[in-house]
Design brief:
about 170 residues; mainly alpha; Four Helix Bundle (Hemerythrin (Met), subunit A); 2 strands; globular
Amino acid sequence: MITALLDHLAWADARTLDALRAMPPGTPEAERARTIYAHLAAAEHVWLARLEGRAPVHPVWPALELDEAAALAADSAAGLRALAAGLDAAELARDVAYRTSAGQSFVNTVGDILAHVALHGSYHRGQLALLARQGGGTPAATDFVVFVRGVAAPPRADAPASPRSPAAAERR
């Protein structure tokens, strides 16, 4: 299941990136989305570094442009998937000691960290979907079930339109 969640993470990050790139530029929503996407990419990077026992290159809230964040997300997803591919039950239960960006010490298992990374991404992709809609774009369908179906869900007819979208203008 961990491998499927990490495959979903890579797929969902890429779909979210496509939706963000399609947003009208220069809006406050597009800027906030870039900041959150950079955080999402950096958090995946930071957790991979912790799992590999090395220092991360980027802070958890980096100042990255969208293309830089995209490259970081892709690299981290590939690293997480490679790491998870060879794990057995004993390795998933292995403790990993680390310090948070605030300097607090914690210990979690590899399995718990990988589950957290997948869930953390889902949380922020939800925020990014809302920002895409509010900023005049179209959010990507990134639900896990859409991923496992392998078929994109059709757009919802009852989805609220952004006040800036052409559909909203037609309703006025």
